[in-house]
């Protein structure tokens, strides 16, 4: 399930970036998406490596919280280093969206699994 969890997280990051680029009328081009995505994808990878290194599955809601915190904080640092913007509102939106979805799907999965 670890691989599936990573893919689900990645898909929600792609959704986050796509919605953001669309909302700000930046367009959904391959180059534009890649430019906005890479800091978050790299940070997600670090979050997952940290989680797995601690011998965690990455599937629990708590794992999701750790992954979100690493993804957002490191993602913002990578954006700054690469010359991209990081307004406070953007940080709040990123933290809110990614918490809702990366922790949220884990909560839903846990509830469904417990009912089975």
Q: What's the helical proportion of residues?
A: over 70%
Rg, please? 14 Å
Order of helices and strands: HHHH
The class by helix and strand makeup works out as: mainly alpha
Give average pLDDT, whole number: 94
Overall 3D shape: globular
Question: Treating each run of at least 4 consecutive H or I residues as one helix, how many helices?
Answer: 4
Tell me about the largest β-sheet: none
Distance between the termini: 17 Å
Question: What does this protein structure show overall?
Answer:
It contains four helices and no strands. Helix 2 packs across helix 3 and helix 3 (61-81) runs antiparallel to helix 4. The protein starts with a helix and ends with a helix. The model has no long low-confidence stretch (mean pLDDT 94). It is globular and about 45 Å long. The protein has helices at 2-23, 30-53, 61-81, 88-115. The protein has one domain. Helix content is 82%, strand content 0%. It is an all-alpha fold and 116 residues long.
Reconstruct the topology from this structure.
Blueprint: H1 2-23, H2 30-53, H3 61-81, H4 88-115
Helix pairs in contact: 1-2, 1-4, 2-3, 3-4
Question: What structural keywords apply?
Answer:
116 residues; mainly alpha; 4 helices
Can I get a quick summary?
The chain is mainly α.
């Amino acid at each position: 399930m670890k691989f599936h969890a990573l893919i689900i997280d990645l898909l929600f990051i792609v959704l986050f970036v796509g919605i953001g680029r669309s909302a700000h009328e930046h367009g959904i081009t391959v180059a534009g998406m890649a430019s906005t995505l890479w800091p978050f994808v790299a940070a997600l990878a670090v979050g997952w490596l940290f989680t797995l290194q601690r011998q965690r599955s990455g599937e629990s809601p708590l794992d999701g919280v750790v992954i979100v915190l690493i993804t957002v904080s490191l993602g913002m640092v990578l954006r700054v280093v690469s010359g991209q913007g990081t307004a406070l509102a953007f940080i709040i939106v990123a933290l809110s969206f990614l918490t809702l979805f990366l922790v949220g799907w884990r909560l839903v999965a846990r509830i469904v699994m417990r009912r089975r």
